[in-house]
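Q: Sequence in, structure out?
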Amino acid sequence: MSTTTRPTIWVAYGPTGVVGTVRKDDDGYTVMMAGAAASAGTYPTMEIAKRALHARMRPGSDWPQFREH
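A: Exactly. Output:
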């Protein structure tokens, strides 16, 4: 009998709205920027994924707010 883990998603909000998401699954934490066709990578920890998402935002952007959904 196998166990399937349901993915957890955090939505990242900047001052103008949604800037991206981080999805936790069996492979790690996958970053998807808003409007992108492909992921920005999968990372081993949530903190690294958050930093990767922020690094892909417009230079000088404030740290986004992450909300679990």
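Residues 46-55 form the longest helix (10 residues).
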